[in-house]
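We treat protein structure as text, and this decision shapes the records that our systems exchange. The remainder of this section carries one protein's record, kept here as part of the documentation:
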Amino acid sequence: MTTMLELHDNVGCSYTTTLFETRIAVQMPAISRFFGIVVTMNYNDHPPPHFHVRYGEQRALIDIDTFTVLRGQLSPRVLGLVVEWAVQHRAELTENWNLAMRQQALRPIDPLR
């Protein structure tokens, strides 16, 4: 038996999840990981095109076009690493956003090195 749940994070985003017995599967795949930073993108997300970042307890949504923080907060060090990575991978982020809007599998993006 499955049950659909809606969860909300601390930056105002909601996630539709499926409860399978006692396990929750969140439909927001990680597209990159580096230095403890996890970058994800959600299916059926709201405009403008953006990606989600987690680092420890820090959470933020970052605009793909401007690299500004739309919601949440990251320490200056983490934000600097994320923006450096995003500048290098803007085309891939845009491509993944378009795939996500079409409900297609997202492609992994190389980490910051």
